[in-house]
């Protein structure tokens, strides 16, 4: 995954609350291999009722975006469609973590700011990840993002590589932990 | 004296390997559960040539795509492939898998506790949001996405930022016909489906203490529908009774040592929570949902809301439209086309008993499926004769899996059809494209079956035993 710090793109507003991951990608598509491209499944069953999203790379969404199922396939659908950032008042916790792991920005903005932005959509926005700012023409507004996630997105860090640097601490911890907490190891399977 | 700690703090601290400069913690994972949906994660592992760090701490379960009928000849090639991919991946990496024909197969969040894999004080991850269920035992248990699943497989650790603490105390006592599902949908309706976002919930108080493990699991299961990172309940005698003698639980001297530690993990008396919510059990009635989010829940005596004109109400109007309801009409009496009793929320033995208590000697006016949470739950229900009650009422008694909770195995609700369901999500299309889902407790689903319509279960319980 490559990092990024600025993005300019076309934004569309989907001012609907509680767009869950079942809607972002219906369950019946989840057995497909990623190599098929998941963009075709994005919001599949809602498309007819939504504004045209073609060419969009930024979504302005409602409250609690990405709630529900932990399916990372919802992120694959957004990313493969070309979405780089979602701006919303709040996100499902697991969704937001999944997003960051795939280079997708979950930016938290105040509902007021979003309402104002949505009034200008569809249109072009510029995102400054380092400054946590969104620019629309002359006006600029700030967004919230966990600093850990901000850095991960900018650097394009991959957790597995990152954790690899700590492998000695993990080994030492695991050994001490299992010695101290023998009951945490599953007992040899007994048959009921 | 040391600072008083919460149950969550105590369990978290035992698992913290290190804290990064940015504040995120690297945590040790005691149990990792995988299912068919984990195929993306295994592929990530393969692409990087990595192996599973601790195969003996990882367990596989076939559930999401498990056919509930005709298991020996699966005709859908996609379903066959999803199941064999999990079996292959677990075999290749030396992971114990509860496959389709295992006598202990079932839904991952039913199997973990039932097998004694879920224990107090553990940190448990699974690539499934309802992993919060396992918190009922006093474990920290939360769902993760595929990238994190790959990370846990490769390192047996997970990065997390410590969530805030929230305690929900439930005072008083529940009335007849009211259970854990009603408590859960009730608080989610009050606080919203993002009401507990960023928080780890501890459920406490006399009502929680009086709940069975099944009820506690239902309560913790639905934590995620209120946006919480996880839900937890301190281990007590009820917990120990449930776990003792389970196949993977500690035995002999190991059990005694474990039990002592587990009881010590309870929140200290003066422990501080970032948020406290207190509910009065006496005020809780059997609940149903009318809309397309679990927060759209009202007592069965209530009505479909009447949206005003402001744009804020667009969501309510849209949900009422999708559900094919009329604003302002009473919910009771709304005809349903079918019922479903199942899922990791409400398919344990006690759930089946509650539904059977209502259905015994009665007939369902509409068709429906009863899918027990595991093959062991199924066997126990059959031993108790519950299967006869369901079958004689006219419902289908089928094998265990996620089934109509998510429809991946082909058990779906047809477009426009209305289903009274014991599951956890009434999202648009969750049970099938265009399906209309009303969430409620197993007893309430049984009442809907008897009436062929949404109905208050309480009159049907008169003169009957209510656990
Ligand atoms: S029963 Fe439903 S909610 Fe539970 S694990 Fe299966 S699909 Fe998920």
Looking at this protein, list some descriptive labels.
heterodimer, A: 192 residues, alpha/beta, 7-stranded mixed sheet, 7 strands, globular, B: 467 residues, 19 strands, binds iron/sulfur cluster
General description of the model:
The complex is a heterodimer of chains A (about 190) and B (about 475). Chain A is of the alpha/beta class. Helix content of chain A is about 30%, strand content about 20%. Chain A is built from seven helices and seven strands. The longest helix of chain A has 14 residues, at about 165-180. With about 475 residues, chain B is α/β, with parallel strands linked by helices. Chain B has 15 helices and 19 strands. Chain B has a five-stranded parallel sheet, sandwiched between helices. Chain B has a five-stranded parallel sheet with strand order 17-16-15-18-19. Chain B has a four-stranded parallel sheet with strand order 11-10-9-12. In chain B, helix 6 (about 180-190) runs parallel beside helix 8 (about 215-220) and helix 12 (about 350-360) packs across helix 14. Chain B is globular, with a radius of gyration of 21 Å. The interface between A and B is large, with 59 and 85 residues. Bound molecules: iron/sulfur cluster. The site of iron/sulfur cluster has 13 residues of chain B, from helix 4. Iron/sulfur cluster binds near residues 63, 64, 128, 343 and 405 of chain B.
Entry summary:
Chain A has 192 residues and is of the alpha/beta class.
Structure class of chain A:
alpha/beta
Order of helices and strands of chain A: EHEHEHEHEEEHHH
Q: Mind describing the biggest β-sheet of chain B? A: 5 strands, parallel
Rg of chain A, alpha carbons: 20 Å
Question: How much helicity do the residues of chain A have?
Answer: 25-40%
- Please state roughly what percent of the residues of chain A sit in beta strands, choosing from under 5%, 5-15%, 15-25%, 25-35%, 35-45% or over 45%: 15-25%
User: Would you identify the regions of chain B where 5 or more consecutive residues have pLDDT less than 50?
Assistant: none
Oligomeric state of this protein: heterodimer
Query: Largest sheet of chain A at a glance?
Result: 7 strands, mixed
Give the N-terminus to C-terminus distance of chain B in angstroms: 43 Å
Gyration radius of chain B, rounded: 21 Å
Kindly state the percentage of residues in helix of chain B: 25-40%
* Mass-distribution shape of chain B: globular
Span of the ends, CA to CA of chain A: 47 Å
Determine the mean pLDDT of chain B: 95
Number of strands of chain B: 19
């Amino acid at each position: 995954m490559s990092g990024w710090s600025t993005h300019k793109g076309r934004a569309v507003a989907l001012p609907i609350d509680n767009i869950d991951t079942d809607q972002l990608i219906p369950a019946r598509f989840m057995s497909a291999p990623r190599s098929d491209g998941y963009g075709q499944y994005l919001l599949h069953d809602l498309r007819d009722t939504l504004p045209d999203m073609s060419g969009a790379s930024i979504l302005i969404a409602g409250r609690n975006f990405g709630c529900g199922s932990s399916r990372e396939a919802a992120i694959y659908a957004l990313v493969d469609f070309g979405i780089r950032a979602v701006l919303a008042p709040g996100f499902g916790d697991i969704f937001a973590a999944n997003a960051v792991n795939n280079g997708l920005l979950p930016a938290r903005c105040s509902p007021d700011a979003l309402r104002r932005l949505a009034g200008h959509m569809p249109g072009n926005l510029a995102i400054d990840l380092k400054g946590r700012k969104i620019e629309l023409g002359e006006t600029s507004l700030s967004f919230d993002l966990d600093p850990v996630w901000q850095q991960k997105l900018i650097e394009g860090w991959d957790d597995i590589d990152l954790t690899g640097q700590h492998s000695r601490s993990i080994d030492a911890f695991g050994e001490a932990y299992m010695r101290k907490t023998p009951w945490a190891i599953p007992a040899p399977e007994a048959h009921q | 004296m040391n600072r008083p700690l919460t149950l969550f703090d105590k369990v978290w601290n035992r698992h913290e390997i290190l804290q990064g400069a940015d504040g995120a913690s690297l945590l040790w994972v005691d149990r990792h559960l995988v299912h068919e949906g984990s195929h993306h994660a295994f592929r990530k592992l393969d692409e990087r040539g990595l192996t599973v760090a601790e195969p003996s701490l990882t367990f596989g379960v076939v559930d999401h795509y498990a056919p509930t009928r005709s298991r020996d000849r699966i005709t859908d090639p996609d379903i066959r492939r999803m199941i064999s991919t999990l079996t292959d991946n677990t075999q290749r990496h030396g992971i114990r898998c509860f496959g389709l024909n295992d006598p202990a197969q079932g839904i991952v969040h039913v199997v973990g506790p039932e097998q004694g894999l879920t224990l107090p004080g553990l940190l448990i991850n699974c690539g499934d949001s309802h992993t919060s269920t396992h918190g009922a035992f006093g474990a920290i248990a939360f769902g993760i996405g595929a990238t994190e699943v790959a990370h846990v497989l490769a390192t047996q650790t997970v990065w997390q930022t410590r969530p805030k603490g929230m305690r929900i105390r439930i005072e008083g006592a529940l009335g007849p016909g009211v259970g854990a599902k009603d408590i859960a949908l009730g608080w989610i309706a009050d606080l919203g489906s993002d009401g507990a976002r960023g928080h780890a919930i501890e459920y406490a108080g006399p009502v929680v203490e009086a709940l069975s493990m099944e009820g506690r699991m239902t309560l913790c299961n639905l934590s995620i529908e209120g946006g919480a990172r996880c839900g937890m309940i301190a281990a007590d005698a009820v917990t120990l009774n449930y776990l003792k003698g389970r196949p993977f639980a500690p035995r002999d001297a190991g059990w005694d040592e474990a039990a002592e530690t587990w009881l010590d993990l309870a929140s200290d008396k003066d422990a501080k929570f970032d948020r406290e919510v207190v509910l009065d059990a006496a005020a809780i009635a059997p609940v149903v949902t009318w809309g397309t989010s679990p927060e759209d829940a009202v007592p069965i005596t209530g009505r479909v809301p009447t949206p005003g004109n402001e744009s804020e109400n667009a969501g309510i109007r849209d949900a009422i439209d999708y559900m094919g309801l009329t604003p302002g009409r009473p919910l009771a009496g709304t005809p349903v086309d079918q019922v479903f009793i199942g899922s990791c929320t409400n398919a344990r033995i006690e759930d089946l008993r509650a539904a059977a208590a209502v259905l015994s000697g009665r007939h369902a006016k509409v068709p429906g499926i009863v899918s027990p949470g595991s093959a062991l739950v199924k066997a126990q229900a059959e031993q108790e004769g519950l299967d006869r009650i369901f079958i004689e009422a006219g419902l289908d008694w089928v094998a265990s899996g996620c089934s109509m909770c998510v429809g991946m195995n082909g058990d779906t609700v047809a477009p426009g059809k209305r289903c009274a369901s014991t599951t956890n999500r009434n999202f648009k299309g969750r049970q099938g494209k265009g399906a209309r889902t009303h969430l409620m407790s197993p007893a309430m689903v049984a009442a809907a079956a008897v009436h062929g319509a949404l109905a208050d279960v309480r009159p049907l319980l008169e003169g009957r035993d209510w656990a």
